[in-house]
Amino acid sequence: MKRILSIDGGGIRGIIPALVLAHLEDTTGKPVADLFDLVVGTSTGGILACALTRAGPLRRPLYSAHDLVELYRERGHDVFNGSVWQRISTLGGVLDEMYDHKGLEGVLHHYLGDSLLCQALAPTMVTAYDIERRETIFFKSWRERFNHINCVQACRATSAAPTYFEPALVDLDEQERALIDGGVFINSPSVSAYAEALKLFPGEEFQMLSLGTGELTRKIPIEDSRTWGKAGWLMPLLSCMFDGMADAADHQMRLFLGNNYRRLQLNLAGASDDMDDASPENINALAELARDLIAKEHETLTQIKYWFQPEL
């Protein structure tokens, strides 16, 4: 039996899957890199995937999931560091990106250093999209094509959400590629993770844990939408795409794997659904929702824990 971990995108809301994984590490006594045979993430999920499989001394994981919870608490404001004036001058991301990518890159360098994707402790994949060639990119730690790609490059690309950060420029196939957040085509990467697992482990059976970053609760009143043009629809349309794709992937995986598939997701009532709300108040609210989810899904998490028990 091979185990797959899939982590959604969602910006600062990545603290939710980080807390769930911290709970799983605590209850099993094992790090994520030892628990799963394939780790796949999009956007903030891609950052978690690369950080949790980064090798430290003696080829042991450098970070625990608890360490990554602190990434969101302590460094979230460094990633989303735009001023009020920047929001106004860019019309909320309509005229230009809302945030300087240097803040994001600084955090990525702090946690990922110069580690190469191919050095990951478990097979790891993150998603991106090439806007010039109009093609999907799946950075795979086991593919020779990506041996020169470091984790900072892969994570900068997968987290370059349109309107938030400018595209990442990455040398790939001896060409410079302009890459953006894989969430534009696959915010919940579970189906692609399953497809890769079928190729990596032919003939095996699979169990998958898919972690969401919260379902959106903010309604889009039809009265408002009637007056929107291109600019007005931009941000709501992105949120609809991300949410809709995650629901579709969840439905498909339930058909593919049945009881061997578990999805942990929550409603964002009580916290902001903005990907960039890194205020202490919102981070605390997101963490509280995650703790409620862990309590509510105690039985499911206990079942998942038994996935990792030695077979008799």
Largest sheet: 8 strands, mixed
The CA-CA distance between the termini, in Å, is 13 Å
Report helical residue fraction: 40-55%
CATH hierarchy: architecture: 3-Layer(aba) Sandwich
Fourth-level CATH superfamily: Cytosolic phospholipase A2 catalytic domain
- The helix/strand order is EHHEHHHHEEHEEHHEHHEHH
The figure for the number of domains is 1
At the first level of CATH, the class is Alpha Beta
Gyration radius (Cα, Å) is 19 Å
Mean pLDDT: 88
Overall morphology: globular
The total strand number stands at 8
Pfam families: Patatin
GO biological process, one term: lipid catabolic process
GO molecular function, one term: monoacylglycerol lipase activity
Keywords: Hydrolase, Lipid degradation, Lipid metabolism
Can you describe this structure in just a few lines?
By secondary structure, the chain is an alpha/beta fold. The chain is 46% helix and 14% strand. Helix 3 packs antiparallel against helix 7 (151-158).
Q: Can you walk me through this structure?
A:
The chain has about 300 residues and is of the alpha/beta class. The chain has one domain: Cytosolic phospholipase A2 catalytic domain, CATH 3.40.1090.10. Helix content is about 45%, strand content about 15%. The chain contains 13 helices and eight strands. The chain has helices at about 15-30, 30-35, 45-50, 65-80, 85-90, 100-110, 150-160, 185, 190-200, 220-225, 230-255, 280-295, 300-305, and strands spanning about 1-5, 40, 125-130, 135-140, 170, 175-180, 205-210, 260-265. Strands 1, 2, 3, 4, 5, 6, 7 and 8 form an eight-stranded mixed beta sheet that branches. The longest helix is centred in the C-terminal third of the chain and has 28 residues, at about 230-255. GO terms for molecular function: monoacylglycerol lipase activity; phospholipase activity. It holds the Pfam family Patatin.
